[in-house]
Structures are given as structure tokens and as C-alpha cells.
Amino acid sequence: MRNKPIANVNADLLKERKNCSFDIEELTNLIDGGKNQTARRREIENMLLKNMPFDIIPEECLSAKEKYENAVRKSVALNKIGVELVSQVTKAKELSDLTLTLRRVSDAYFREVTPFLLHLGMFIPTILGQCSDEQVAHWLPLAMQLKIIGTYAQTELGHGTFIRGLETTATYDERTEEFVLNSPTLSSSKWWAGGLGKTANHCIVVAQLYTKGECYGTHPFIVQIRDMDTHMPLKGLKVGEIGPRLGFQTADNGFLVFDNFRIPRDSLMMKHAKVLKDGTYVKIARHSKLTYGTMIFVRVLLVSEMAFNLSKAVTIAVRYSAVRRQSELKPNEPEPQVLDYLTQQHKLFISISTVYAFQFTSNWLMKTYHTVQANMKHGNTDALPELHALSSCLKAICTSDCSAAIEQCRFACGGHGYMISSNLPSLYAFTTATRTYEGDYTVLLLQTARFLVKTWEQVELGNAVTPMVAYLARHQNREAWDESPEGIIRAFEAIAAGVYQTESVRSVSFGQSDAIKDVMKQLSDLYLLYWSLERTGDLLTTLKSTLGSYDGRVYERLMEEALKSPLNQEPVNESFHNEPEPQVMDFVSQQHKLFIGIASYYSYSMTALWLWDILTKVTSELGVGKTDRLPESHGRAVFMSVFNSEMEKSVSSLSAPLQAVLRQLVELYLYYWTLEKRGDLLLVLQSTLGSYDGRVYERLMEEALKNPPNKEPVNESFHKYLKPFIQGKL
Ligand SMILES: CCCCCCCC/C=C\CCCCCCCC(=O)SCCNC(=O)CCNC(=O)[C@H](O)C(C)(C)COP(=O)(O)OP(=O)(O)OC[C@H]1O[C@@H](n2cnc3c(N)ncnc32)[C@H](O)[C@@H]1OP(=O)(O)O
Ligand SMILES: Cc1cc2nc3c(=O)[nH]c(=O)nc-3n(C[C@H](O)[C@H](O)[C@H](O)COP(=O)(O)OP(=O)(O)OC[C@H]3O[C@@H](n4cnc5c(N)ncnc54)[C@H](O)[C@@H]3O)c2cc1C
């Protein structure tokens, strides 16, 4: 049981827990959404803990193939229980609570992720969001009971961000009432879909729809890709694993290439558009971007995912900081817990408040998402652009902040935080990917900026805007508004903070004790203060500049400001009578600027002398026009070698102290540029992306094909675990 005291707990941890100013159980209930939800969560957790197989050998010590097989074994066991639990649930709310609990508990079994992640996270949501009612009735039960295992293949080798640029084609053939899928180029190969490499037998494929010779843009299709009995890839497609990556190592991300692969007409997911038997295209959607719906849903989910992952990282770091003692503050006294260092608290506490900021905002965002969905069911898509802007913005910021905060948690654990067994590296690898997938950080912020600029135009025209962006209208003074994209984006960050404050205050306003309210208020204030300090510059509502003032009174303002300086409040500063100020020459940063200049001067003089001798020869050989095209690194190498050798020649007759100084200058020049140009000095990049010939897609595919999992068409875990599971014989 959860609250049973555990023997042998570290004394420092016990002491910290004793010092807690509030009832932990009360906070747990708040996070779970109520006492009943906490009880239900624990019931499910205990049941899973009793029935789930744990790893005997740590996951990270296995080979890539063993890791995958182990992940399939555990996924099958977990999902067997999950499917049974889901079948007992009747209400939508219970189902969402259960899914959340299963998602959370699954992390106890996977340091990496399950190969079923995309099935649960995107395949099922896309069926719900993109299929017609009849299609939902057919596909949903199969997917929910895991009779089929699916994934979501949108990204291609050549395009991920720019969806309209996808190249896979689905051409309707009215004679056979089928679509023909093709990958016309190497860059059109589907790439990245999780679970595609070895596990999935179905796949949502996003392709350009052609009918009657016209292209109607990208549409989702649901496609069987492997034989249900033998698991062999179907004829007309090539499928495999893309190769090792930073994290997601057990997600078997895959590639998929089509060659005249035929699928029935009703493979098109027909909620928002249909193709009739005769090939007529019928648009149903009221908004052209409704086919992007699953991405919005997952972006919303990711806010809570980030709260969860950061909560794990910061729990690890805080507990360890209570246990870890380091350094001698006072002679003969015990070393302090590292948690007591203010600098350590600075690393940790902002992460704690960030977890709550994300979780409260996520609860609110999910509610907003469901409200917009409900409106759209009745044909009202007015709130969709704002939901897109909001989910894009919050997804971008929370994934970015979360991976940075997890990195801080790792720093807070010193060397041991670098151990895989600390779980911090895996948490980092998982979350840093979220900054890229489901919409790259920069790209999503630009989508939000686009929305804000359009809103601003409406404000200027005096038109009404939604409550979320009404603050734009409150800035009557143009000077107060920073129009740069960064300013706009950061203004939106401030709103996220505002949501957190109002939501956290609302959530703790009933029932909860004063102790919890105090803690939540402190966390909320910490989060707001932290970001106010981090972004002080953005919060200044005028330009605060003597040079950029509206009236152009530059010199008057410079003088006014100068006179305000405290140094001008007394005619003679006391340092006149006391110690002199240091010379700027004594600052290391100043020396850094100057010494390299001196070294360069010598280098250039030596090289110039040498160059003079050979200049005529070089110009006659290369032609004057070509000499200036010598690459920078070549020039740098010449400076270095000439400086080095010429200096040696000329210093031999000098006195020893001068020789030493000049030699130091040579070394300084060489080291400085070695550090500055580290990147250029690495001759062997060992990279598929950075090869000299730019054959990026060819190399990615060549590497993927070398991948050991691709040496066998069907992995043995299919026969051992997957097949008996799918067929209900496990
Ligand atoms: C045990 C149980 C467990 C269960 C639960 C598990 C949970 C675990 C959690 C998580 C698991 C999931 C793991 C996922 C793994 C990764 C999956 C993937 O990565 S799948 C690929 C994602 N790919 C992208 O996200 C591409 C990003 N690109 C885009 O989204 C678009 O292409 C974009 C937005 C960049 C540009 O799209 P344009 O070129 O078509 O549009 P433009 O021309 O720029 O804009 C036209 C108009 O459309 C609007 N627009 C664009 N997107 C919209 C949208 N989505 N909705 C509404 N409007 C949109 C724009 O705002 C603009 O509006 P105006 O003209 O200004 O009014
Ligand atoms: C672990 C992982 C799992 C994934 N799983 C799946 C999956 O299951 N299914 C799937 O379909 N996809 C999946 N993806 C793919 C993922 O969705 C894409 O990688 C992501 O959307 C980014 O697209 P991209 O790779 O084309 O990057 P690019 O768009 O090529 O980005 C490269 C750089 O260009 C910049 N850039 C691009 N466009 C613009 C612009 N308009 N303005 C300014 N800067 C720009 C970006 O900011 C970035 O710095 C996965 C990716 C990862 C890493």
C-alpha cells in the first residue's frame, strides 16, 4: 500500500518529509482530480504492479534487437490488462482517467517507449477524428481491442514541416474503385512513423489525393501493410526500421515506400472529404485544415506529457539532493545536504513550479479543446484558428522548457545524473524529441505569430477579438506594443502564465486547506517572478531608451539620465582619496580582446613578408581573380604555418625573454583559432546529414537498410508475443 512506512529510508529524506508544511495526500488528491480518482489510480497501479513482468537485465544493457523484443513482450502484457480494463468502462470520463493512469503507469516498465505508442497516441485518435461514422464503427473496435496495430505515417524523407509539400500520391482508379499508392521519388519515402519498422500491421498514410486528373491536396488513408497471419510486408511496398536515434530506441520508427500499391476506395478516411465510386470528389469539411486535427490533439496532450516527465525528473533530483552531501562549509562540521545550497534550490524549485504551470494549463487546454470539438460537431469552426495558435504556442514552449529543465535536473545530480540508471538521460532524450516532432518549435511559434498579427490587424480596425487575445486591444499606446515576432510570441507566453495563475487559484479555491493554498500560491508566484526576471527586457512597456524616444530629444535625454547617476551626486568620489580603480587592462576579458590582436598583428606581418616572395608566382598560376576565393580555413592554415616557421627563424637571434614572449604569441594564435574553428577542424563528420556530396536522403536510406532489424522480414517476437496477442490466444 502507498502510505505504508517503508523500512530503511534515508534519514535525511525522512527529515525533509517531516518538515513538509502540508498534507501530501491532500495535494495528491488535487493533482489526481479528487479522492476517488486517487483511490482508483492506486487500485489500477497495484493490479499492474502485481501482474506485470519487470526487466531482469536493465533495458539499456540489451542489444538493439533484444531491446525491441523486450519492449514487445512488455507492451503485450501491459496492453492485455489495458484492453480488459477498457472493456469494463462505460463512461467517457472514466475512459479518459483510465487511459491517463495506464499511460503514467506504463513508464514504470519502459525506460524507453512502447512500440504501441503511435497506435495509442495517434492511430486511434485519427480514426476518431478523420473517419466517417461507418468507418469508426468498423475500425475503432478493432483498434481498441488491439486486433490491429496501427501507426501514423505522414512525414517523408523530404518533408515533415511543410505538409502541403508531401509527395506520396493516392490516385483513384474508378475502373477498379481503388486508390493506387505510389512513392514517386526517394524523398517521398515515408520516414519516422513509430511502430512502423517492425510492429504495425496497419498504417495511416497521408498522401496527395488525385482523382479525375486533379490533385485535391493531402488526405489521410488507412492502409493494411502486413499480412495478418505471417506479418510479412504486403506486395507492392517496402517497409523497415530507420536506424538508431538519440531516444525512442524501442519505438521501432520506420520507413515505407509504395510501388503501385492498391487499396480499396473506402481506405480514404471520409469524415471531411469523400471520393464517390465514379471518382467525384466531395468536400464535407467547413474548414480546410480539419485533416490536421490529430496533430492539434497530440499537441494538447503533450502539455500534460511534459508536466509528467518533468515531474519525474524533478522528483529524482530533489530526492537525490536531500540524500547527497557535498563540500565542507565549516571545519569539523558534517557536509551539508546539497539541497541546502541556494544555487541548488535555484536549479530545482523553478522546475517544480513549472510542473504545476504545465499541469494546470494542460487541464485548461484539454477542456478548451473539448469545447471547440463540441462546437465543431455542430458546424461551428470559428474557434479553430485560435485553438491551433494556442496549442502550437503552448506545445512549443512547454516542450522546449521541459527539456531545458530536465537538463537542469541532470546538472543538479552531478556526475551520477549522467548514469542511464538515474533515468535522467532517457527522460531528456524523450522530451527533447518532443520539441521537434508534432511540429518543430520555431515553425509552431511562427504559426502563433501569424495568428497574433492577424488579430492585431482586427484590433486596429476596431473589431472584436476573442477574450484570450483581448489584451492586445488594451494596449492603446502603440509604443507599448512590441511588434517584433519575438515580442508577440513572448506576450503569448505571458498569457500562458496568466492561465496558470487563474487556473491554479481556481483549483485550490474550494476544499483545500490553507497550507496547500499557501504552497500553490508560492509556486505560482515563483513561476511568474522567475519568468519576469528571465524576460525583463520584454516586459518593459516603453522602449526605455534615450536614443529611440518618440520625440528625438536624444542629447537632452542623455544628459538628463547622466545627471541622475549616483556617481554624480557627490563632486569627488571617495576612491579619489582611497584605492585607485583598476586599469581596464587588468580585466581578463579585455586581455582576451587585445592579446589576440597583438598575436594576429605578428602573424600578419610574418605572413606578409613570406607572401611577398611568392605573390607573383601564385597570381600567375591561379589568376588574380581566383586567389581571393581561397577558403578561409586555407588562409588560416597559411597564417599559422608561416607565423610558426618564420617566427622560429627570426627569433633565434633575439634575447631569451623576448623569444619566450613571441613564442607565446604563436601559441596563442594557434590555440585561439583551434578553439574558434573547432567545427571546421573535424574532418570526419561521420554524418548522414552533413556529407560533402549532400546525398542526404540516399545516405539515410542506405544506413537504414544496413540496420540489423531489417535483415529479417519478420522479427521472432511477432510469433512469440504479437500474433498470439492479436489472435487472443495469449
Ligand atoms: C497507455 C495509454 C497511452 C495513450 C496516450 C499516449 C500519449 C503520448 C503522447 C504522445 C504520443 C505521440 C507521439 C507522437 C510522435 C510524433 C508524431 C508526429 O510527429 S506526426 C507528424 C507531425 N507533423 C507535424 O506536426 C507537421 C508540422 N506542420 C504543420 O502542422 C503544418 O504544415 C503547418 C502548420 C506548419 C503549416 O501548414 P500549411 O502550410 O498547410 O498552412 P499555412 O499555409 O502555413 O497556413 C494556412 C492556414 O492554415 C492554418 N492552419 C495550419 N495548421 C492548422 C491546424 N492544424 N488547424 C487549424 N488551422 C491551421 C494557418 O494558421 C493558416 O491560417 P490563416 O491563413 O492565417 O488564417
Ligand atoms: C522521435 C520522433 C518521432 C517521430 N514520429 C513521427 C511519426 O510517428 N509520424 C510522422 O509522420 N512523423 C514523425 N516524426 C517526424 C516529425 O513530425 C518531424 O520531424 C517534425 O515535424 C519536423 O519536421 P522536419 O523533420 O521536416 O524538420 P524541418 O522542417 O526540415 O526542420 C529543419 C529546420 O528548418 C526550420 N524550418 C523549417 N521550416 C521553417 C519555416 N517555415 N520557417 C522557419 N524555419 C523553418 C526548423 O525550425 C528546423 O530548424 C517524428 C520525429 C521524431 C524526431
TrEMBL record:
It comes from the Eukaryota. Residues 23-149 form the Acyl-coenzyme A oxidase N-terminal domain. It is found in: Peroxisome. Pfam families: ACOX, ACOX_C_alpha1, Acyl-CoA_ox_N. Residues 292-453 form the Acyl-CoA oxidase C-alpha1 domain. Residues 542-579, 684-727 form the Acyl-CoA oxidase C-terminal domain. The active site is at residue 438. Gene3D superfamilies: Acyl-CoA dehydrogenase/oxidase, N-terminal domain, Butyryl-CoA Dehydrogenase, subunit A, domain 2, Butyryl-CoA Dehydrogenase, subunit A, domain 3. FAD binds at residues 155, 194. This is Acyl-coenzyme A oxidase. It comes from Diatraea saccharalis.
